[in-house]
Amino acid sequence: MLWPARRSILAVLAVAACSLPVVGCGSSGDSDQARTVVKDFLSAAAKGDGTKACAQLAPDARKLLESQTGASCDQVVRELGTHTPASQRSQVDQIDPKVTIHGSTATATYHGVTGSRQERTITLQKTGGQWKISQLPSSG
């Protein structure tokens, strides 16, 4: 049985993973790198690949996820994968989020495929030359 906090985190990850493509912006190296991190995270999360999805998270984001769920990041993502329908997994692989760079931070936006299809936002931080997800998806 899932703990309530764990259920809510799974819901957030499910919303993130269940999205439709949005045309990306620009072709700069930073934009492309940040977009790849987001695409890799969402695709891996939808498939339950905890190792790949969690590798896209900044250490603080990973710690927050684990403290809120009481489980390892890998476990949370594996569980998410078991609840993601195959039809949504294929849609996730088509994601092309719009990325906006703000110095050493970036935001990536896309629309969900479930419910009201609200715009979702992921925040990234560039540290040591690499983009990592610093804040999990939120709706806007």
Mean pLDDT: 81
Radius of gyration: 14 Å
Low-confidence stretches: 15-27
Assigned CATH architecture: Roll
Span of the ends, CA to CA: 30 Å
User: Number of DSSP strands?
Assistant: 5
Overall CATH class: Alpha Beta
Relative helix content: 40-55%
Strand content: 15-25%
User: Could you state the order of secondary-structure elements as H and E?
Assistant: HEHHHHHEEEE
Structural class: alpha+beta
Number of helices: 6
Keywords:
24% strand; 5-stranded antiparallel beta sheet; alpha+beta; 140 residues; single chain; globular; Nuclear Transport Factor 2, Chain: A
Report on this structure:
The protein has helices at 4-17, 29-47, 50-55, 59-69, 73-83, 86-92; strands spanning 19-20, 98-102, 105-112, 119-127, 130-139. The protein has a single domain (4-139), classed as Nuclear Transport Factor 2, Chain: A (Roll). Helix 2 (29-47) crosses helix 5. The model is unreliable at 15-27 (pLDDT under 50). It is globular and about 35 Å long. The chain has 140 residues and is of the alpha+beta class.
Brief write-up:
The chain has helices at 4-17, 29-47, 50-55, 59-69, 73-83, 86-92; strands at 19-20, 98-102, 105-112, 119-127, 130-139. With 140 residues, it is an alpha+beta fold.
Explain the layout of strands and helices:
Elements lengths: L3 H14 L1 E2 L8 H19 L2 H6 L3 H11 L3 H11 L2 H7 L5 E5 L2 E8 L6 E9 L2 E10 L1
Antiparallel strand pairs: 1-3, 2-3, 3-4, 4-5
Helix pairs in contact: 1-2, 1-5, 2-5
